[in-house]
Amino acid sequence: MAPRDEIECWLTDMDGVLVHENHALPGAGELLQQWTDTGTPFLVLTNNSIFTPRDLSARLRSSGLNVPEERIWTSALATADFLQSQMPGGTAFVIGEAGITTALHEAGFIMTENDPDYVVVGETRNYSFEAITKAIRLISKGARFIATNPDATGPSADGPLPATGAIAALITKATGREPYVVGKPNPMMFRSAMNKIGAHSENTGMIGDRMDTDIVAGIEAGLHTILVMTGISDEAEINRYPFRPDEILSGVHELVAKEPIESDEI
């Protein structure tokens, strides 16, 4: 893992790193602009599989951050990329929304309820008992079980919502089958992101706010890891784990290069 001054490419989490409750965090805009101005390859990563990159780009823009959709990498895109590599032109039954269905369509997959190669569970706010029952029956008949991410809950203004991991656990209980989870903390999501921007682990950094997803996956992928304290982690949380990031910063503003100091020396 290279020291920070040798990092040539960056991966960064979105929520808790660049934005919090749809407000840009200090230094986020400046850091993104710095990467853009210097031609530094980067991707913004998220385990959220509900939205397409275009949706997320618009969301970030409303927060004051300019991130083109081609600079966003979701667990849905990583899942589609993985399945395309496993079974090009395959079929899938999907529980999820536009983020995952669009990604799979663009990867050449056919959506079907009739003997699919895969059952793919992603994030949605409209889980139905009928769809979950169908997924259970298809997996029991031999369909391979995939989940976009392991998050058991997601945030809302009224409190936690059941998320992909919770629904996948229900299906696992009914079938006895564990899903293959593509999103963080699976380092495969980082490897697919690096492939997208032509990066190598030796000179790539990962910025995140969670020890149990961003940092552990970054370590396992061989990246320079930076934990920022603008998300859910605090010192007690960090000390719970047997591993540590390469750096701990108060926020991404610490990564923004300072203006060079002019000197009168010749």
Describe what this molecule looks like in 3D:
With 266 residues, the protein is α/β, with parallel strands linked by helices. The chain folds into two domains: 4-47 and 184-255, Rossmann fold; 77-181, Rossmann fold (3-Layer(aba) Sandwich). It is 34% helix and 19% strand. It is built from nine helices and 15 strands. A six-stranded parallel sheet has the order 5-4-1-13-14-15, with helices on both faces. Strand 6, helix 4 (98-106) and strand 7 form a beta-alpha-beta unit. The chain is globular. It starts with 8 loop residues before the first strand and ends in a 17-residue tail after the last strand.
Features:
Rossmann fold; 266 residues; alpha/beta; five-stranded parallel beta sheet; six-stranded parallel beta sheet; single chain
Number of helices: 9
Helix content: 25-40%
How would you name the CATH homologous superfamily of the largest domain? HAD superfamily/HAD-like
Number of domains: 2
What would you say about this model in short?
The protein is of the alpha/beta class. It is 34% helix and 19% strand.
Write the layout of secondary structure elements.
Layout: E1 9-13, E2 19-20, E3 23-24, H1 28-37, E4 42-46, H2 53-62, E5 72-74, H3 75-86, E6 91-95, H4 98-106, E7 110-111, E8 118-121, H5 129-140, E9 144-147, E10 153-154, E11 161-162, H6 164-175, E12 180-181, H7 188-197, E13 204-208, H8 211-220, E14 224-228, H9 235-239, E15 247-249
Parallel strand pairs: 1-4, 1-13, 4-5, 6-7, 6-8, 8-9, 9-12, 13-14, 14-15
Antiparallel strand pairs: 2-3, 10-11
Helix pairs in contact: 3-4, 3-7, 5-6
